[in-house]
């Protein structure tokens, strides 16, 4: 999966160049945005949409690396230091659960509820999943601690929980990108997006300015390198 940012053109789960005014390419095909000029032209101003999708991809990258680390441990009998797992869980806990999800609920979901009731049930389910995600992350932290203390006897339980979290988040992301964002692009006004843009533009990455393998960029580089080694 990749995100391609050229202006406000985005491609998700699609290796072809983005064309026209598409927002999301999902498993069920491209979800095309409306071309009407009211309440707003789909790609006239969507900084918030871009940031939301970018943050989804960052979390997907971290979760994918955790999966590969666990599988590497099972297959090769070696794994990266536990501090790397801890750094990833810190990212999942601090950024999505305490910054990204609350802002989705307070700004994106709230503005959607004010403009339409067509996906209220979906938004209710996503709110529930946000709360469930926090519980799952705590469970992952507990399982990792047990793995550190007990050793390989606790590896299978940790692997299962990482896999379940990966499946859980993949489904959560799919709903937001294939259902919620296309509706948002269709019904929200310029004023709505201005508020959402400002909220998400102010997000602070918990690794910003903090040395964890020097900085976040190097952490992702390290993850990518290990992932490529595992796939060989």
Kindly list the characteristics that best describe this protein.
about 230 residues; 7 helices; two-stranded antiparallel sheet; Hemerythrin-like domain-containing protein; Four Helix Bundle (Hemerythrin (Met), subunit A); mainly alpha
Write the layout of secondary structure elements.
Layout: E1 22-26, E2 29-32, H1 47-76, H2 82-94, H3 96-115, H4 120-150, H5 155-187, H6 190-201, H7 216-231
Antiparallel strand pairs: 1-2
Helix pairs in contact: 1-2, 1-5, 1-6, 1-7, 2-3, 2-4, 3-4, 3-6, 4-5
Protein name: Hemerythrin-like domain-containing protein
Pfam families: Hemerythrin (PF01814)
InterPro entries: Hemerythrin-like
């Amino acid at each position: 999966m990749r995100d391609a940012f050229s202006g406000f053109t985005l491609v998700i789960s699609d290796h072809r160049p983005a064309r026209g005014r598409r927002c999301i390419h999902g498993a069920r095909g491209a979800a095309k945005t409306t071309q009407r000029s009211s309440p707003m032209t789909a790609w006239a101003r969507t900084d918030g949409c871009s940031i939301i999708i970018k943050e989804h991809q960052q979390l997907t990258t971290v979760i994918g690396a955790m999966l590969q680390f666990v599988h590497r441990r099972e297959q090769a009998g070696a794994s990266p230091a536990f501090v790397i797992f801890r750094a990833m869980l810190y990212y999942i806990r601090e950024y999505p659960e305490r910054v990204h999800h609350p802002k989705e609920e307070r700004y994106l979901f709230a503005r959607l509820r004010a403009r339409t009731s067509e996906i209220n049930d979906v938004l209710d389910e996503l709110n529930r999943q946000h709360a469930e995600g926090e519980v799952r992350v705590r469970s992952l932290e507990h399982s990792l601690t047990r793995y550190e203390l007990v050793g390989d006897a606790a590896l299978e339980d940790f692997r299962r929980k990482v896999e379940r979290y990966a499946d859980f988040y993949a489904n959560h992301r799919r709903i937001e990108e294939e259902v919620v964002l296309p509706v948002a692009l269709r019904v929200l006004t310029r004023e709505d997006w201005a508020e959402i843009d400002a909220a998400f533009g102010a997000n602070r990455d918990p690794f910003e300015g903090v040395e964890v393998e020097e900085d976040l960029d190097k952490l992702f580089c390290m993850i990518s390198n290990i992932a490529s080694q595992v796939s060989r």
